User: Fold this.
Amino acid sequence: MNNKKFTNLISTCGRKILFVNHAAVLGGAELCLVDLAIAYRNASQILLFEEGPLQNRLSSLNILVKTIPAPGALLSVRTSSRLSGLAAFPALWWMGRRILEQSQGFDVIHANSQKAFAAAALSRWMGGPPVIWHLRDIITARHFSSLNRWLAITLANSQASKVFVNSNATAKAFIAAGGNADLVQVLHDGVSNVPFGEVKREQVLAIRAEIGISEKIPLIGCFSRLSYWKGQHILLEAIQDLPEVHVMFVGKALFGEEDYVNRLNELGASPKLSGRVHWMGFRSDVPVLMSACNIITHTSTEPEPFGRVIIEGQLARKPVIATAAGGAQELIEDGRTGRLVPPGNSNALRKVIEELLSCPAQAEEIACQGYNSASTGFSLDAHLKKFSAALGL
Ligand code: UDP
Assistant:
């Protein structure tokens, strides 16, 4: 891999970062980590708790990555479950020891996920280097059991040097759960616009050909792992009575949830929708796929901590419709840089889709303002500069 390809290399004056992430899937948190790992490739190593696509992606970029498989009790723990949280404690302790061993020679540990943070906080307690928790989840009762919230907040307040959060919404939830506000630094994620600028018209036509529809057919894109709270069913309900409209779902279930996938498949095969729903699975050509769409939707039924796909849709110069909750509200000014609809409301979503499709000039203006907002306010370069300053290395 040619190093000249990486324009974002950052100097840390010889000081070293150990990035730790428990999962090896390619979700939003992990894709943000890939950007950080590229920028700090000369002064860092990545530690994962399992093997998987993230490890392969990092290795293919020649980034130093090591996997220490965590005991199943830790990997399978559901953050919303009280009992499995207790049962996982010995495994967490074991992982804390491994992180302590691996952190020799590093100046700081950056924990990119909650499980990674809990283990890293224990390694700090055992005498390891300072730990920064990069919190990318909204800590609420819906997603975290009271025990897991208590553990995370107690460890954060006692062991974390800083807590980076990806939105004001994430910060607010952390503080409301008892987190120390003085630790918090808001660092909105950033996305590079380079791959979006490189998309060629032939590639867009190839996607339309792949799914078998002409350029004249309105195509709505939804880019997300398949999960109940990501609300793919809301989009299906919204287009049921819009017979011209096709939808493309890009992503797969990353954390189980096969029941939900079956339910989506059934809905997609129903008489009103059959032939208009295109399941693309997990893809690595998101900029091209987005460019082939007329509208990008983000349909989470729960507050989204950040929502990288919103920024990506804006960078693809498409009008983005997102739900008005959590961090999404920090990325879109309704009616100017995108559209916001109430979460879980398929009627409201249908109306906005109809509006944008029937008024191309309005859709184009929103896409243009969205692009300006994403490329100036949420650029990868700006994010890396803020990250570097916040890190204090
Ligand atoms: N994504 C991808 N391939 C897919 C589906 C999604 O690369 O098939 C990417 C998407 O482009 C975005 C990320 O996964 O960068 C999802 O991030 P987001 O913050 O929207 O959601 P999260 O996964 O963090 O819940």
Summary: Residues 360-377 form the longest helix (18 residues). Residues 26-29, 31, 223-225, 250-251, 282-283, 286, 306-309, 312 surround uridine-5'-diphosphate (CB under 6 Å). DSSP finds 18 helices and 13 strands in the chain. The chain has a mean pLDDT of 94.
